[in-house]
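Quick one: C2 and GRAM domain-containing protein from Zea mays, structure tokens please.
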Amino acid sequence: MVTEYLSKMEKEVGKKMTLRSPRTNTAFQELFSLPAEEFLISSFTCYLKRKLPTQGQVFLSPRTIGFYSSMFGRKTKFYFLWEDIEDIQGIPQSISSWSPSIIITLHKGRGMDAKHGAKNMDNGKLRFCLQSFASFSVANRTIMALWKARSLSTELKVQLAEEQSQINTLQSEDSGMASLMEVFAGGSLEMKVMEKVGCQKYSTTQWESDKPNEYQRQIHKFSKKLSPVGGEVTGTQQKSLMPNTKGWVIEEVMELQGVLLGDFFTLHIKYQVEDLAPKQRASNVQVSLGIEWSKSTRHQKRIEKNVLSSSSARLKEMFNLASRELSHAR
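--- reply ---
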């Protein structure tokens, strides 16, 4: 029965679908407190758009669609049933939105346990917005096919990777200037430095705040150094004042599209930029790097070594360039 269901979905979506492992299925069920008969069909990394976009993953099963995010110590988790959905629309990219979106509207009064994840509510109907998929067309076709097949039911166990996190402090250096936060200001210095380290089509949103002294923005770029043919990078940055108010902490979560198994993990970077004594006109910068795995693979060690090594080299080059540019501007 399960293979027949997946075969039907493959024809609808135009993409091969494979059964997940029992271990992944168990983790999926535990994550959303689902019964044993519910199994994972597919998952996609994306942004949940609310007042501030939240980077995470959407999980699709025969009866449910769920979202989970764990960023900067905050977790967002919810799910609702396909039968709760009144309408699904694919919205093309526009001037106001930097990527296509999937808008999901629930029937009136349905899915209220997921209200905290909704973009808005109109006349008792919750509306959810998902965007920035690695492959919008595949995600859109899969979601639409499962919604259309919502009356079907199946049974089996599948695979969902357990999250792992490994953080390594890679550098600590004095920059020689006190204005290195300009690298995160969205101005000419940031654009110039990013271009010199191989980032094309670099863009950022404005910093937005929903809490005092805490801000968030999104970044997008094409990196020539990500792989032999380059690759897209999307990410979320959050900055907050250090307790002593003499510097900032910037935490970044990045998705890499164009590297081996890039949809299996996210790259986490933490910057601590602290001004030293004013007379020194210097900043101390500490950067930590880590990989968080959403799916397991036997290539993890090799990928971690390559990604962390290349990212460390890029960050050192970035701050060295910024220091020189700031020095010349004096």
